[in-house]
Amino acid sequence: MKKLIFLSNKYRGLLLAFLKPLGFWGAGLVALLDSSSIPVPMDPLIALYAWNNRHTFLLYVLAASVGSAIGGLVPYFIGRAGGELFLLKRVDRVKYEQLRDRFEKQEFLALLIPSMLPPPTPWKLFVFAAGVFEMKVWNFMLAVFVGRMLRFTAVSLLTIRYGPQMVHEVGALVQQHAVAVLAGLGVIFALLALVAVRKSLRKKATA
């Protein structure tokens, strides 16, 4: 296990050295690739950026958030172009209808919350679903941007306060309790849906 961690840290160090000449643009580029096609461990990378650039970490957070929002347009437009059948191959009909309900009632929060959460949250599934259910492009980009800003800022502040190893430890903890994390996400969505339904009923009652 220690060997794997060492190799992982070495890989991140090499990647950071390669991207260093690009400054905060490098963070944006990697985030774009991560969201569009090539998976990259963004949290550890953001942690290294924050650790090495403590006074300007917000620039890296901002660039990564923008890159993530732009890169997410790739799976979003694939879903929008006719990805319903593909989505149904990934989830069963019940899950599909639940996703549809979430995006119809609270599309912004339906994408904002997954964008805030670390792996193993199936983020690209929600991005793809946003396209399938025709979420407006600017709402989509804003939800991803805000969610990523909150997540990357939290990662940066934790790193600056406690060191880069803290991000690895938190990530490992989340991985160990993946089911609980996803269950918590489901509860949050259920509560938000309940609030949305109540607001809708109140509006109809006062109309």
From TrEMBL:
Domain VTT: 58-157
Sorted UniProt keywords: Membrane, Transmembrane, Transmembrane helix
Pfam families reported for this sequence: VTT_dom
UniProt GO cellular component terms: plasma membrane
Record flagged with keyword Membrane: yes
Transmembrane segments: 12-33, 57-79, 137-158, 178-197
InterPro entries registered for this protein in UniProt: DedA_domain, VTT_dom
Presence of keyword Transmembrane: yes
Protein name stated in the entry: DedA family protein
Species in which this protein is naturally found: Silvibacterium dinghuense
